[in-house]
Amino acid sequence: MSSNASSAAVAVAAAVASCRLEKQQRRRLAAFDFDHTIVSQNTDTVVRDLLPTEVTSARAHELVENDCWTEYMAEVFRLLHEQQVSEARIRDTIRGIPEVPGFVRLIKHLAKRMHFDLIIISDSNSVFIEEWLRAHSLSDCFKAVFTNPAEFDADGRLRVRAHHQQTDCKLSASNLCKGRVLEHFVIEQDLRRSIRYDHVFYVGDGNNDICPVLRQRACDFACARQGFAMEKHLLRNRSKLKLRAQLLIWKSGFDLMDQMLALPQLQTHQLVGGDFETPESQAEMARRASAAAGQTGKSPN
Fold first, then answer.
1. Catalytic status, residue 190
2. CA 67, CA 226: separation in Å to the nearest integer?
3. Positions of E strands within 131-171
4. Can 33 be counted among the known catalytic residues?
């Protein structure tokens, strides 16, 4: 290769790198519910079942009848502590909940192979979710977990608080509007980190997963578990709800991964650092790089 050709090649490479640096980061996001989506059971009720069947309280009945689920679980945790159910036993119980088949593999593939950004939005609590993720070596796969904050106090009693308080969204519980959380995360990533998501996948199963998918764009994907409330509600009311996102119905993590990998929108070339490019963007960058290299190779007048 001649020195001129070599210099031109170096100039093209430098120009391509420069073009990429100028771009806003373009990425993909997958947001997951937790109970009955990643794990196969409801973490709250699994732990509640550690109570002897005869143990309850008038306050617990009142709270569950009034749809005050987070306050109800706080009362359950008080009763568990009263019954001397230990922190270790609660953590062991959470670790033993099986995954929905294929979800550990799906999460690792999206995070480590396809360089998705992943988040969890769940009405469980931070102790349960963090314990399960750590037990399955998934903690480093998620950028953020949005849930009800919880911790064991010095006496070993589990304390839980609401993620937030809201009355605006009638599709959501007062302690957590998943749609608001998802919207705020996407906006914050754009404004603070110059990360824009070309596609957002929301994966869930229940009625409280309806709100976030109704806020999605036409380029996004609502992923509903087959046979569960989210799928039934969306199919029954799709035109009335004016769902813009494309609907994927999944049976397992394996099934969902197969559907995602088959999407033409995901047939792209991965870049270093997690950004990605389509054939069209490759052609545009090549054109700009060639133009820049041409300017570099010109002799001064």
1. no
2. 25
3. 144-148, 150-152, 158-160
4. yes
Nearest in space to 204 (alpha carbons), one of 170, 183, 175, 233: 233
Quick one: pLDDT band at residue 296, thresholds 50, 70, 90? very low
169-181 residue pLDDT tens: 888 888 899 999 9
Question: Which residue bears the tokens 């192979």?
Answer: 113
Q: Which residue has the higher pLDDT, 294 or 226?
A: 226
| Selected catalytic residue, list 35, 44, 117, 220 | 35
Residue 49 has which token pair? 């079942």
The 10s digit of each residue's pLDDT in 267-284 is 864 444 445 544 444 444
Of 33, 44, 117, 220, the active-site residue reads: 33
Q: Are 270 and 276 in contact (CB under 8 A)?
A: yes
This prediction has a pTM of: 0.81
How far does Cα 200 stand from its chain's mean position? 9
Cα–Cα separations (whole angstroms), residue 55 to 37, 48, 70, 90: 29, 10, 19, 17
